[in-house]
């Protein structure tokens, strides 16, 4: 410790910051703030270089997030998942899985719309929200924001059921999606 104190004494004294006044987060943040302020400039450089080196090692070994903060990456992933734009997706399913009452082992490509429509809020949506908050509209199931829905549908889908009967279903699969 004598070598570290002699090396840090050769550096010019770093200006000390006073701890911020924290109303609600008081004790824990004040403790960390006081702890960090107690470090000399040389100790802070060592700490930062150790953190940078740990980050480099994690990235070189295939890691995708800081090992010090493992939950931060998952929070960002959840945040991005909530704000995916409205887009067309597809899934290969059997006709029976569609839930339309047909028994068939034939498979179809089911295209559907998924995502959020935050950017498409219109005057209608704002007015509807206001009417609901003022209780002018009650007990009705109304969404006061745009929904990601099909704007156009693929061609009709035809198939044979388990009893060799031929069926055609229209407006089954989305062709184009948008916020309505």
Primary descriptors:
single chain, 180 residues, Cystine Knot Cytokines, subunit B, two-stranded antiparallel sheet, TGF-b_C, growth factor, disulfide bond
Structural class: alpha+beta
User: What would you report as the Rg, rounded to the nearest angstrom?
Assistant: 30 Å
- Identify the strand order in the major beta sheet: 1-2
Low-confidence stretches: 1-9
CATH class of the domain at 87-119 and 145-179: Mainly Beta
At CATH level 3, the topology of the domain at 87-119 and 145-179 is Cystine Knot Cytokines, subunit B
How many DSSP-defined strands? 6
Level of helix content?
A: 25-40%
Distance between the termini: 67 Å
- SSE arrangement, N to C: HHHHEEHEEEE
